[in-house]
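Comment thread on ticket #2218

A.B. wrote:
> Attaching the input chain for the structure job we discussed in standup.
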Amino acid sequence: MTINFEGPMCGCGARGCIEAYASATAVARRMKEAVESGRESSLKADILAGRDMDSKMIHDAALAGDALASEVIEQTGRYLGIAVASFVNIFNPDCVVLHGGLVNAGEMLFAPLRQTMKGLCFEASQRKLEILPSALKGDAGIVGAAGCAFARSKGNS
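C.D. wrote:
> Ran it. Output below, let me know if you need it in another format.
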């Protein structure tokens, strides 16, 4: 899903996809870019030393009071809010389930997501909408693949 046609290149070859803004890789990239541009962070030494950065490290830094890490997570929530609002406006679901390591950031991620959605979603679509973290944790891909395989074995492709 594209959220900015002039945004960064995505792995799929398009520009400005939500993946280029809200994936764990994108979160680490934005954190690294901010530090390299001169912003301060408790992760600065790790980033400048070229150590791999992941969303858990950024979340842990935010919990420890790192303002830049908090800003990156909140910004990610706003990007997700844009994408979820588009999805909700098109499909009007009762529930949206988000998956990935960053959902463990809880309200640090979900509060800006909901706030962004308020200005972008039809009011009626938001009334009963639930936005939840996945209960499947790291098993979502495996469960989905198993479900697809099961459906195909039953002739429901």
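A.B. wrote:
> Thanks. Noting for the ticket: The chain has one domain: 19-153.
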